[in-house]
Automatic annotation (TrEMBL):
<feature type="transmembrane region" description="Helical">
    <location>
        <begin position="6"/>
        <end position="29"/>
    </location>
</feature>
<feature type="transmembrane region" description="Helical">
    <location>
        <begin position="118"/>
        <end position="139"/>
    </location>
</feature>
<protein>
    <submittedName>
        <fullName>YeeE/YedE family protein</fullName>
    </submittedName>
</protein>
<keyword id="KW-0997">Cell inner membrane</keyword>
<comment type="similarity">
    <text>Belongs to the TsuA/YedE (TC 9.B.102) family.</text>
</comment>
<dbReference type="Pfam" id="PF04143">
    <property type="entry name" value="Sulf_transp"/>
</dbReference>
<keyword id="KW-1003">Cell membrane</keyword>
<keyword id="KW-0813">Transport</keyword>
<keyword id="KW-1133">Transmembrane helix</keyword>
<dbReference type="InterPro" id="IPR007272">
    <property type="entry name" value="Sulf_transp_TsuA/YedE"/>
</dbReference>
<feature type="transmembrane region" description="Helical">
    <location>
        <begin position="75"/>
        <end position="97"/>
    </location>
</feature>
<keyword id="KW-0472">Membrane</keyword>
<keyword id="KW-0812">Transmembrane</keyword>
<feature type="transmembrane region" description="Helical">
    <location>
        <begin position="50"/>
        <end position="69"/>
    </location>
</feature>
Length: 141
């Protein structure tokens, strides 16, 4: 599977994620971890649910709006829906045991110079490198 090198789009996306995290921290004093956002929305009677729901709705609506104004997104998953679902469950277990996800640890935690977030992010990245290497060069075409 060939991936495209998109430095400009990647840079803009990274800046927007960072800006969103900074704005949320400045206005709400909260970390923009997507797993915690979703968990807070699913908690019954959580006083934080409205802003968490708004943040998640924006994360879902933004690419939809971008598509409507002409942006193109290419996504190809070289696997089945069942394996994607299994992968999602594995990620869910990982973020539970890791006390956060890549956005919470990688974006917000590293910005706060958190040693725990550094270890978590290095673990995410090492696992990703290993998975891609195995899937592309050992088990792939």
């Amino acid at each position: 599977m060939v991936t495209e090198f998109t430095p400009f789009a990647s840079f803009v996306g990274g800046v927007l994620i960072g800006l969103g995290a900074v704005i949320l921290m400045a206005l709400n004093g909260r970390i923009a971890g997507m797993t915690a956002m979703l968990g807070g929305v699913l908690e019954p009677q959580s006083p934080d649910s409205p802003w968490r729901l708004a943040f998640l709705a924006g994360a879902i609506a933004a690419p939809l709006i971008a598509t409507l104004i002409g942006a193109e997104f290419a996504f190809a998953a070289p696997t089945t829906g069942v394996l994607l679902a299994i992968g999602g469950v594995i990620v869910g277990v990982g973020v539970t045991y890791g006390s956060g996800c890549t956005s919470g640890h990688g974006v917000c935690g590293l910005a706060r110079l958190s040693p725990r977030s550094l270890v978590a992010t290095l673990t995410f990245m090492a696992t990703t490198f290993l998975t891609v290497t195995l899937m592309r060069h050992v088990f792939g075409d």
